[in-house]
Design goal:
Strand content of chain B: under 5%
Number of strands of chain A: 0
Radius of gyration of chain B: 20 Å
Number of helices of chain B: 8
Largest interface: A-B, 55 and 68 residues
Radius of gyration of chain A: 20 Å
Order of helices and strands of chain B: EEHHHHHHHH
Helix content of chain A: 55-70%
Largest sheet of chain A: none
Oligomer: heterodimer
Strand content of chain A: under 5%
Helix content of chain B: over 70%
Shape of chain A: flat
Distance between the termini of chain A: 60 Å
């Protein structure tokens, strides 16, 4: 590897997931989205007698799984430096804190 | 941050030259929602001057700052013969730091829309009609496909296939345009249903959240076209593709935000 200088970008040396892995993740994302949609439509049209709280929990868990899949595999957080994860989790922490405080300040 | 070993086996951290453009960009992104909020709050009253100048002026200045700083940042990098956001690990770290702040911003906007929505169950029926959910689902699928094309583009340039990179990122930009167009159609449908930005607290929160996300998609489309331009000019190569990775982080983040919006606002 050549010595990096300020005018020359260094080749990236990270692990690069195979294309098949990207496709697999896409299939999971699509499958989970279809699952969410079918569940939501059948519940909102009274075809499925599911309590609203249960629907909310299932949908939010499915949404979070999709978000984690994108962040881990498409944004390469699974393979990159843990510092990126720390920075992102700091943002998530403050976002949750802000969200938890909102009901007390909303008029 | 990881480091790179030079030819003598020493560790060396590669950092970009100091620049003030990210600061201007951050300032612009802060001014956008502030101006929008002020504008919205003044829409129902206030003096003629405050109604027409305060919120709009802050929003307009923020938008100008965002566009100006993105352009300036890119031009300064190109002039220095470096790819956009040069500095291998430092560039990615800076992008993650930026995305961390965006997480806070969108977290607040999503929570705000959700809690306001809980108090206004009347909008529930309008958002949960079959046709409305199909439109939004189609848009969700479009963003998922666009995320796939970004990683396929990245994989292509890693294998030295520059034309494939141009093709995949071009498709990404096109899908972004389709997404925004469908969102505009959805807005017209909701306005017909009586959900406007001034009709209720939910309308204000909803359009603030989805509109701000849509603005991010528009910025992403412009960015994708810049990546296509850089690839076509040979600035991005199999050895230098950090600009694609940085753009990818931004685009995937916009996708993640939509995944959460889709679930929390449209489906629950």
């Amino acid at each position: 590897m050549s010595t990096p200088s300020s005018h020359e970008s260094t080749p990236t040396t990270h692990h690069h997931p195979p294309i098949a892995e990207y496709i697999t993740v896409f299939k999971w994302l699509t499958g989970l989205t279809i699952f969410e949609l079918i569940l939501a439509v059948s519940t909102h049209t009274q075809m499925l007698p599911l309590p609203e709280a249960a629907l909310a929990v299932i949908l939010i868990v499915a949404g979070l799984i999709k978000a984690v899949l994108v962040v881990a595999y498409y944004m390469h957080l699974k393979y990159d430096s843990r510092w990126y994860t720390v920075v992102l989790l700091a943002g998530v922490f403050f976002a949750v804190l802000l969200g938890a405080m909102l009901p007390f300040v909303l008029k | 941050m990881s480091s790179h070993a030079d030819s003598h086996g020493h560790d060396e951290i590669h950092l970009p030259k100091p620049t003030f453009w990210p600061l201007l960009l951050g300032l612009g992104f802060v001014m956008l929602p502030l101006g929008f909020i002020t504008w919205s709050m003044e829409a129902g009253g206030g003096s003629l001057i405050s109604r027409f100048y305060t919120g709009q002026a802050v929003f307009g200045t923020g938008l100008a700052l965002v566009l100006f700083s993105i352009g300036g940042w890119l031009v300064s990098n190109i002039r220095a013969n470096e790819p956009a956001l040069a500095g291998v690990e430092a560039g990615k770290f800076a992008m993650w730091a930026y995305l961390g702040t965006e997480t806070i911003l969108f977290g607040g906007l999503i929570a705000n829309a959700f809690f306001v929505w809980l108090r206004d169950p009347a909008v529930n029926d309008k958002l949960h009609t079959f046709s409305a959910m199909m439109i939004v689902s189609a848009n969700t699928f479009i963003l998922l496909v666009s995320s796939l094309t970004v990683v396929l583009g990245l994989a292509a340039i890693q294998q030295g296939k520059r034309n494939d990179l141009i093709k995949y990122i071009g498709i990404t930009a096109l899908l972004g345009v389709v997404f925004v167009s469908i969102q505009a159609y959805e807005y017209s449908h909701l306005i017909e249903e009586g959900i406007t930005i001034t009709s209720s607290q939910f309308g204000q929160a909803f359009y603030m959240l989805t509109g701000f996300h849509g603005l991010h998609v528009i910025v992403g489309v412009i960015w994708a076209l810049v990546v296509v331009f850089m690839a076509a000019r040979g600035i991005i190569t199999a050895q230098r593709y950090m600009a694609v990775e940085i753009f990818g982080l931004y685009w995937h983040f916009v996708d993640v935000v939509w995944i959460i919006i889709f679930t929390v606002i449209y489906l629950v």
